[in-house]
Task: inverse folding
């Protein structure tokens, strides 16, 4: 059974459930919003952080946990200085590059109401790429769009990612295929947007067998087991 056959068993609504209940990044963002309770500030800081979340000193999940804890305590409107401190403390690999990226995104985002993009994530993806002077399919750009979409869901909007937005091709995803056309075809064939395919792969890779066994929905559990076996054979070999 290939990846297409496995993914074709999933439907989008259960993927949304899977993301919201098993993606640690989603959970940490949710905890952060409970502390901040300011929609626009929340969206701004998670978008900024997503664009600086590369070459990390920690695993991704731990990095987002640290971010959530830090900005739960530093949640005033002094976004720029808070991020300078956060970079110095927890994200200082390639520090100069990250500060340049912070300057670029902050100058664009500081006076924005990010809710204007809630019904058009493709436009958000395009504008973020233009601001950061990158391609719309670059890893940090599509990841930023994913985090923005997560944020919108946390504050109460139902968001299904558009098919037009690409998947972040990192080392794990690249072991399956680095061909952009492969992923675009796959998404259309299984009728699942690529950012949701990304979630399925990443969350499943992070679950051990005990956690998978604790999934209450038997149908979903069996699908995740199939996906986990496939990913173990492809990515871990």
Result:
């Amino acid at each position: 059974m290939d990846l297409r056959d496995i993914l074709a068993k999933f439907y989008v609504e259960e993927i949304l459930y899977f993301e919201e209940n098993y993606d640690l990044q989603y959970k940490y963002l949710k905890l952060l919003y409970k502390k901040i309770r300011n929609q626009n500030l929340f969206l701004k800081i998670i978008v900024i952080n997503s664009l600086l979340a590369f070459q990390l000193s920690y695993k991704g999940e731990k990095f987002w946990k640290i971010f959530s804890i830090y900005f739960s305590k530093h949640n005033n409107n002094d976004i720029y200085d808070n991020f300078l401190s956060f970079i110095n403390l927890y994200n200082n690999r390639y520090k100069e590059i990250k500060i340049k990226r912070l300057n670029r995104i902050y100058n664009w985002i500081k006076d924005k109401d990010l809710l204007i993009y809630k019904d058009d994530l493709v436009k958000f993806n395009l504008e973020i790429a233009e601001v950061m002077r990158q391609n719309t399919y670059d890893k940090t750009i599509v990841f930023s769009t994913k985090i923005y979409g997560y944020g919108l869901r946390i504050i109460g909007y139902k968001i299904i990612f558009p098919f037009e937005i690409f998947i972040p091709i990192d080392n794990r995803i690249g072991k399956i295929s680095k061909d952009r056309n492969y992923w675009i075809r796959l998404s259309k064939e299984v009728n699942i947007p690529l950012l949701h395919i990304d979630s399925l792969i990443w969350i499943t890779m992070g679950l051990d067998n005990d956690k998978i066994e604790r999934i209450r929905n038997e149908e979903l559990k069996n699908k995740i087991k199939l996906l986990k076996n496939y990913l173990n054979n492809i990515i871990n070999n």
Remarks:
- The two ends are 17 Å apart (CA to CA).
